[in-house]
Amino acid sequence: MSPALTLSEHSKNTCSKSEQTPRHDTNSLSKNPLRRTWRGNVEGTVELAVIPKFQDRYAEREWVKAHLAAAFRFWGKQGFGDGVSGHITVKDPVLPDHYWMNPFAVHFSSMTKSKLVLVSPEGYVTPHGAQLPINTAGFHIHSAIHKARPDVVAAAHCHSLHGKAWSTFGRCIDIMTQDACLFYDNLKVYSNFGGIVLAPQEGENIARALGAKAKACILQNHGLLTVGSTVDEAVFLFSALDRLCHVQLLVEAAAANGIPKTVIDDEDAAFTANTLQWWENTYINFQPEYELLLEETNGAFLK
């Protein structure tokens, strides 16, 4: 019988690393980052359905509201509900200076299209949606973001468990995994906590911290914020960032016991980010959840 291994021998990393391979050849890649990620049949008749195009802005409004209601249902499934905290906004296709938002003190898991509120640029409930109050902090944060970033169609913020835990460190996540490349050069930190957001100034501070291009921000001692070209993108990025905060917490615990961590180098991270961060890819990543919600709820959120 061979002798038992000691603890130190158990702890050794016996994996062999592969030889360094040549760097990325991008000449053969499709110019459309979405098209790189899937393939159909030889005949070219199998196609991927992507974001629909609308001639009728009122029809587009109903589509947007359906995806917003589904986004809240998804947050409910993820356990992101936390009292009255948390909000997602999305620009209205009919009145682009207005945005749709969840009502105050309604659980994410019970959201429907008919419960959504259309908010005016001044932050008041309009007659065009549900006649229900909205979250004051949500107005201050989201109105500042929509004003500072005209490219942003949707913004999402709530107090998810792993996001707010990691936020206490006031630092970005490390780019340690393939999915973390979603946030390579795409994540900011608001390194302050100005208290509960009850006035415009704090919302403006958060919008300033997000900056001109990033689609995600860690709000120190608070939580996470993500934005997108669609509500689907904003919500997918939010859940991805929350999971990566969880990964970071696990890795830091292991690293504290002497296990070194490896961060993806800039060239590989940039190459991967070039595909993962494309707005159609982030949109399509939420569609499995949307379709599952339709099936699980029999379309209840469409009411």
TrEMBL record:
GO terms for cellular component: cytoskeleton. Residues 1-36 are annotated as: Disordered. GO terms for molecular function: actin filament binding. Pfam families: Aldolase_II. Residues 66-249 form the Class II aldolase/adducin N-terminal domain. It comes from the Eukaryota. InterPro entries: Aldolase-II_Adducin_sf, Aldolase_II/adducin_N, Aldolase_II/adducin_N_sf. This is Class II aldolase/adducin N-terminal. It comes from Pterulicium gracile.
